[in-house]
Amino acid sequence: MSANLALLLLFSASCFAQDELRHKFVKMTRGWAGEAVLSQSERQAMEDGKQYEDLMWEGLDDPLAKKALAVGEPSFQSMSAYYPGKVLDRTVLGTWSDPSKPAASDQDEFMFWFNGAISANLIRGAWNGAPNQVLAANTNVLFRVGTDAEMFGKDGDRFTRIGFEKGYLPVLTASYMHGGLRYTERAFAIRPEGGQDGAKVDWDVAWVHFRVENPGRTRREGAVHADVALVRGVAKAGPRRVVDEQGAVLMVHTAAGGEGSRVTGRFTLEPGAGADVYFKIPYRPDRQGLVKAPSAGYSSALEATRAFWESILARGAQLEVPEERVNKIWKALLLTNMVLNDGPVFTYGAGLLYNDSYYPFENGFGAHVFALYGHRDYSTALLPHAFEVSVTPDAAGRKYQNRRAMPLHHLLENYRLTGSTAAYHRFRDDIHRIAEEIIRDRHSTMQLVDGERPLHWGFLPPDKPGVDLRASTQKVYVPAHSITNCQGLQDLGEFLVRTGIDRERGERYRKEAAEFRADLMTGLRGAAIKLADRPPFVDLQTLYFRETPDYGPDPYDHLANGRLQGTYYAYWVQMQYQFNFFNPSDDVGEWMAKYLEERGAFVLGNTRARRRDGEQPRYGWINNVYNQGIYDFRLRGGNVDRFLTGFYGRLAYGMSRHVYSASEGSPLIYYNTRLGGFQSPEYSFPNSAANSETLFLLRQMLLYEDLKDNVETGVVHVMRGVPRTWLDPGKTVRFEKAPTYFGPMSFRAVAEPGRIRVSVTPPQRTASLHVHIRRPLHSVRLNGKAHSDFDAAAGLIRVPKASGLLTLDAELAR
Questions:
Q1: Which stretches of the chain drop beneath a pLDDT of 70?
Q2: For the chain, what is the radius of gyration of the CA atoms?
Q3: What is residue 487's three-state secondary structure?
Q4: pLDDT at residue 1 in the model
Q5: Is the distance from CB of 311 to CB of 147 less than 8 angstroms?
């Protein structure tokens, strides 16, 4: 046998072993889902949903969303009525890290499962031919209860399902009735300053408490068991601790004893009595004996954890609406994103997929959301990494042409919300170089062809689209790249002029960007393919669509179920909407929106995605990251019903029902009617960018700045996207300390029979307010005096150049 062959066989055997670890982990967790029994209502919802699945798969114009719209204004109830959500969900358990400081050496989070199980210690190796991939969580703790050791949470009819404490704190709770006893689990993670238990620890520790209570009238026997399973290796249970084969501590506990890999605490409870069992799970096996007894200090650690996260929320904007689910979701998503964040890097995901990933578009936009919710310093600290991975060809790789301009947009957006110019001064030379590259590149295509300007006049030179390799097969004129670069150049010019850093350079960039925009719009209009049975088709992946292999010649019939590039077309369009390049009045922007809406891009308001190659059985996927663009575009154009379809579609199907766990891509059609839509570990739950999009849409619903070509017009819209039911009598909508491009502002709307009072503290810099009551008006008083600047039919009150404390009393038409 040759040395090369021996090496190949060794590598193949190693890869097979690594694949086996991943398969073992997935099989084990799917086994938990298979053991679970859904509640009667959950089973009924799955059965009822099956009747719609073929329609969801084939429908071109999102027929179920249209069905919901026909009933009235979209709501969570109407959007969730036709198909089940994901109820066997999971989330992360972790701690906060400071974005202004380098990340700690270990930033991985615990997985917290639908049944209260906890997974830790991600292990890495080669997978699918790539090195250093996450293979599995090696330490897995499954809790069982009762004398028969039933899986905690097995029977949905006796289970509360997992949830965040108070609906949003990163403290996970669940209660389960079994054998006449109530078992309540509470879990949270800690990494105090200076290390866990007084010693230096570079990883989180999960603290788990089971409270067992006898609510009945007779004595009961009960037990709490913890099964510790290693994907690689064997766990050994003993008094007070569970160790691996090398003696490293996997868990400490207060249970009476252990056998094999299970620890058990047994008790006899009189009526009204209770008992407690505590566990501590280090994220990495503890080889130094740093993790001490789990009962000591539990209460103080829990209170400190609660107080810390509450203090984080108190520093930011304060938001309250008449829909409790929404109140919980925004806080939960904001805090979950802080758990996912790793120091100065706003990490994309957690677990087997995207655990260490970062993307300057998705996470760059996501970082601004922290500022929108009042965490300006946090947002600013995350901005530099977008530059670090984008501004050089070595860092950005094959996506450089598109990525290089993204930080220029982020620079202006961060400045508008925070006033910071720090990133510009740090990356100034790269920023100027990129701007000049953009200008030079676009001028290189200004060559007459047969005496006429070609469609690509002033576009960037050909490149491969900056997406996944499978959808980036041809070197072409990529309109989306040109749009990103045009908007980035304009935004840099705006930044330089507004800050006064370099007005002359900024004016030059703004002028060049305006000409760039005009050339792009001319080319896009000229490239439109117009067929009788559909809206005009304008592709953003290749300007010369008909002539490009793998794309043309004919426009996509079904964006989700047809050619691969059709799905990516939907992503590209929504990404470009996020740069605010297209205005609602632009014909090209409207053509693309209608093409998405009428040619299979959506299901129940969510963006369709490609199913995985070779996936059996067949599932219809959604992508919850590339979704906010069109709904923000529709809201800016005044189509509130369409906006609410997207918002509530996300809440119903873009995230799980109990811990609001969202992903980039996940199966939906034909999947949510199996195993409760189990959020299996090979899917990318949770995802920080998906969380950010939901938070962004909620903020826009309540408050947004009017823009043209991504430049403020001077108008701030208040409550343009809120559901009408939020302004029913007796309800209040409140948004305080809310950052805007004009400075922080606050408002409170209180509805009473026949009238709505809106109290507003306008931003410091002058802006006009458009306050949307969303009901026909009879009259309006401003600070006690009659006010005539309102649209009675539209329910719109205009306050030009608002200043000082304002009280608007709107009397509704009868």
A1: 1-18, 192-200
A2: 28
A3: helix
A4: 41
A5: no
Whether 649 contacts 65, CB under 8 Å: yes
Give the tokens for residue 170.
């990163």
3-state secondary structure 730-795: CCEEEEEEECCCCCCEEEEEEEECCEEEEEEECCCCCEEEEEECCCCEEEEEECCEECCCEECCCC
Is the pTM higher than 0.90? yes
The span from the first CA to the last CA of the chain, in angstroms, equals 92
Residue that has been written with the tokens 């220029």 in this structure = 408
Burial of 193 (0-12, 13-18, 19+ CB in 10 A): exposed
Residue 333: partners with Cβ closer than 8 Å, 6 or more residues away:
660, 662, 691, 692, 694, 695
Q: From CA 348, how far away is CA 366, in angstroms rounded?
A: 10
- Which residues lie closer than 8 Å to 46 by C-beta, 6 or more apart? 38, 84, 672, 673, 674, 676
Contact 277, 285 (CB under 8 A): no
Which H or E run includes 643?
A: helix 640-649
Cβ atoms of 142 and 125 closer than 8 Å: no
Q: How would you classify the pairing of strands 110-112 and 181-190? A: unpaired
Quote the CA–CA distance of 60 and 73 in Å, as a whole number: 21
Confidence (pLDDT) at 13: 38
DSSP code for 662: B
Can you give the pLDDT at residue 468?
Answer: 84
Domain count within the chain: 4
Cα(767)–Cα(764) distance, rounded to whole angstroms?
A: 9
| CATH number of domain containing 734 | 2.60.420
Distances 478 to 457, 467, 577 between C-alpha atoms, Å: 12, 11, 16
Q: In this structure, are 148 and 211 located in the same domain? A: yes
Decide if 702 is inside a domain: no
Backbone angles phi, psi at 767, to 5 degrees: -150, 150
Tens of pLDDT, residue by residue over 516-561, are: 999 999 999 999 999 999 999 999 999 999 999 999 999 999 999 9
Q: Which residues pair with 119 in a beta bridge?
A: 111, 140
CB 39 within 8 A of CB 114: no
* Domain limit, last residue, from 572, 595, 618: 595
Tokens for 652? Answer: 């119903």
* Sign of the CA dihedral running 760, 766, 767, 769: positive
Contact present, 581 and 486 (Cβ < 8 Å): yes
| Selection from 52, 137, 143 nearest residue 92 by Cα | 137
d(CA 334, CA 692): 8
Instruction: Looking at the structure, tell me whether residues 767 and 685 fall in a common domain.
Output: no
Which of 51, 58, 57 shows the shortest CA–CA distance to 83? 51
pLDDT value, residue 614: 74
pLDDT of residue 104: 79
Let me know if 228 is exposed, middle or buried by CB neighbors in 10 A (0-12, 13-18, 19+): buried
Whole-angstrom Cα distance, residue 602 to residue 371?
29
- Tell me the β-bridge partners of 274: 213
* Pairing mode, strands 767-772 and 711-718: parallel
Domain CATH for 21: 2.70.98
CA 408 to chain centre: 23
Residue 162: which domain range?
Answer: 3-35+106-296
How far is 112 from 18, CA to CA, in rounded Å? Answer: 23
Cis check: omega of the bond before 617, within 30 degrees of 0: yes
CB atoms closer than 10 angstroms to residue 429: 9
Contacts of 65 (CB under 8 A, 6+ apart): 74, 79, 602, 603, 604, 605, 645, 649
Helix (H, G, I), strand (E, B) or coil at 131: strand
- Residue 404 C-beta-side C-alpha neighbours within 13 Å: 25
Residues 227 and 341 in one domain: no
Please say whether the beta carbons of 269 and 213 come within 8 A: yes
Q: Which two tokens stand for residue 248?
A: 């490293």
Residue 113 in domain: yes
- Please name every residue paired with 110 in a beta bridge, in sequence order, or none if there are none: 93
Tell whether 709 is covered by a domain: no
Q: What is the pLDDT of residue 452?
A: 96
